[in-house]
Write a structure and sequence with these properties.
- It contains eight helices and 20 strands.
- The longest helix is centred in the middle third of the chain and has 12 residues, at 136-147.
- The strands form five sheets. Strands 3, 4, 5, 6, 7, 8 and 10 form a seven-stranded mixed β-sheet that branches.
- It is elongated and about 80 Å long.
- It is of the alpha+beta class.
- The protein has two domains: 55-235, Nucleoside Triphosphate Pyrophosphohydrolase; 240-405, Alpha-Beta Complex (Phosphoenolpyruvate Carboxykinase, domain 3).
- A hairpin with a 5-residue loop joins strand 1 and strand 2.
Length: 405
């Protein structure tokens, strides 16, 4: 069954991509989208759907979000709050920022990226070995100053609010709330140390852009999944956004990072809405000198699968496209439109029941793949939040090897 509308339940309905695992705290025994076909085979969509459960104790002081939407980070109740922090040699800083610029508030965690040529550009928790000589909180703040090097105007101790610690297997995780930092979409370079990273990047992709996130970071959040979510006043988990990308030419890169992507034209196969893709596709685009990284709220998502019994696109635009291309000198154009008629929805009728669409790497009738996949389409402008932008270096060949400058 398809997941419930986030506008009804404020419950995440992330749909994962092939070769990516969803968060291990998702529970597929959740409610469904309204007006859904009850005959839909849930097993055939198992690779796409998992749903978040709500078995956590409420707690932590609630905060207010714009438009008076209430949220809280209940997981902080699991932390030890006192200042008598034990002397543990390996110290990991788990610094989070609650981003309030999107459709819903969401978490970003500050990770430390190694420079090019060192540990393969690995991304880790900010960490250090503690010898017990200095105050451990002071040493944490010194390390945070070192990592948060692109927010020079904002750097001061008041931005680093200590909220507690957790000890696991001779490792200590000290938590800081960095939400007072004004975190606009930043232009990030490969050499930059501080990367505010989404839960989706940490747990599902295990990378940010194409820089690998250390397994310790991923394991921590998988083993302590309560730290992945914010909650509303009814103790229901708020939707966790996914990471998406959009390529952009040099002269539009910063504009897109400020205002988001523009609404597409009517010639897009899912109608005139907002289209996103993955890092690889965004980086290799012929017209792209850079890319913008987004947090995207999917809400209730439609996933076309191109089954033989699926309804064909009978939209007026599709009929006209087939008529126009039938006599085209490029026969492949007409053939392709025929092959995707159980996938396309040029009139955007999907928006009547869904907030988004995910198009994976579907196999068409002749064994070919659908163009430009994977990509996501969202219904409303406010479902996107730009979080960083980057210039890319295409001199190194294949798209998966394209690094940001």
């Amino acid at each position: 069954m398809l997941p419930s509308s986030v506008n009804k339940s404020l419950r995440t309905t992330n749909n994962n991509m092939p070769n990516n695992k969803v968060l291990n705290f998702f529970d597929k025994n959740d409610s469904e989208c309204e007006d859904e076909d009850p005959s839909f085979d849930e097993k055939e969509n198992q690779e796409y759907y998992e749903y978040m459960n709500e078995n956590l104790d409420p707690g932590y002081v609630a905060k207010s979000y714009k438009n008076n939407t209430f949220f809280k980070y209940s997981a902080l109740d699991f932390l030890v709050k006192d200042d008598n922090i034990p002397n543990v040699e390996n110290v990991n800083i788990c610094a989070f920022h609650v981003n309030q610029t999107g459709k819903f508030p969401f978490l970003q965690f500050l990770l430390n990226k190694f420079p090019p040529g060192i540990f393969d550009d690995m991304v880790t928790f900010p960490c250090f070995s503690y010898n017990g000589k200095n105050d451990i909180i002071d040493e944490c703040i010194s390390k945070l100053d070192e990592v948060v090097d692109l927010f020079d105007g904002d750097k001061n101790d008041d931005n680093y609010k200590y909220v507690g610690y957790l000890v696991e297997e001779n490792e200590i995780y000290i938590f800081f709330d960095l939400s007072s930092i004004d975190l606009q979409a930043q232009e990030l370079y490969r050499r930059d140390k501080g990367w505010f990273t989404l839960v989706d990047e940490i747990v599902n992709y295990k990378s940010v852009c194409n820089f690998q996130i250390h397994s310790q970071v991923t394991s921590f959040f998988k083993n302590n999944s309560e730290f992945c979510s914010l909650y509303d006043e009814n103790d229901s988990a708020l939707e966790v956004p996914i990471v998406c990308y959009s390529g952009a030419p040099k002269n539009k890169l910063r504009f897109t990072a400020i205002f988001g992507i523009e609404q597409a034209n009517n010639d897009k196969i899912m109608g005139p809405y907002y289209y996103f893709t993955n890092y690889s596709n965004a980086a290799k685009g012929d017209a792209s000198d850079g890319l913008v990284r987004f947090a995207v709220f999917l809400g209730c998502t439609k996933v076309p699968l191109n089954y033989p019994n699926d309804k064909k696109d009978d939209s007026e635009y599709k009929v006209q496209v087939l008529k126009d291309k039938e006599g085209s000198e490029v026969a492949s154009d007409y053939s392709y439109e025929c092959k995707i008629e159980r996938v396309s929805d040029y009139d955007g009728k999907w928006t009547e029941d869904y907030n988004s669409v995910y198009i994976g790497k579907l196999t068409l009738e002749d064994g070919s793949a659908i163009s430009d996949a994977p990509f996501w389409v969202i219904k409303d402008y406010e479902q996107q939040t730009p979080i960083s932008y980057h210039r890319v270096n295409k001199r190194h060949g294949l798209s998966e090897n394209i690094f940001i400058l």
